[in-house]
Amino acid sequence: MMNDSLSPEWRARLDNITGKRARIVIQHILAHGTITTEDLKNYGYNHPPRAIRDVRDQGIPLDKFSVKDGEGRTIAAYRLGNLEQVPVDQSRGRKNFSKFFKQALLATYDAHCAICNIQLEGRYFQIDHRVPYAISGEPIDQQIADYMLVCASCNRAKAWSCEHCANMSTKNADICRVCYWASPLSYEHIALRVIRRADIVWTSNDEVAIYQRLQSEAQSTTISIQDHIKTILENHVKNSE
User: Fold this and answer.
1) Please, are residues 164 and 215 in contact by the beta-carbon 8 Å criterion?
2) From CA 181, how far away is CA 176, in angstroms rounded?
3) pLDDT tens digits, residue range 123-147?
4) Is residue 236 domain-shared with residue 164, that is, in the same domain?
5) What's the CATH number where 79 sits?
6) pLDDT tens profile 112-121
7) Burial status of residue 166 (CB atoms within 10 A of its CB: 0-12, 13-18, 19 or more)
8) Terminal Cα distance for the chain, rounded
9) Would 160 be classed as within a structural domain?
10) Taking CA atoms, which of 74, 97, 162, 221 is between 20 and 30 Å from 104?
11) Are residues 41 and 67 in the same domain?
């Protein structure tokens, strides 16, 4: 869609975008037609996907394509998508979460991260859609079952995995619902890969001491601590059969 063909409604929407990063992206696209990851870095954003997500979170579609930078390297570029085809459940952008709703999530999930199970103070948790907002938009009613509490580290890991999942193109919410990132306690795949994972965090002094012992044992056998832990678990299962 050409910028000069924007409807008055969408022009007003774009002019009223909130958030510094999102405004910079939109203003640059309106002025130049596109914005590249190189442009974003020139604005001081060394993690361009975050700035792009800020725009999409406000219900503005951006199409991604590839261009060459000044040195001939392939980089990502973005332009406005078809604004007239934005689903109704995404056209108004993400909803804000009330303090009451977050407190309800903290009580339901006992202040534990849904991914790594670490227990933290409420202010350190982020509220995340089980099915990514980019796939199914915002639920009409905020139901606890549609959201999860995640720590910042796990939220970044989930975002990266989801962004690189082929389902981001097909946007099948049912596929997401049986993914590890939506239901880590019962799932069929992780970003369409038939694999399994368990995220473990050692917190107390006693637990950290155990971790350090495991790490020392792994280093003595020149294998990774992950492989060392898997070997211990495999031997335990075999011995218990």
Assistant:
1) no
2) 8
3) 999 999 999 988 887 777 789 999 9
4) no
5) 1.10.10
6) 999 999 999 9
7) exposed
8) 63
9) yes
10) 162
11) yes
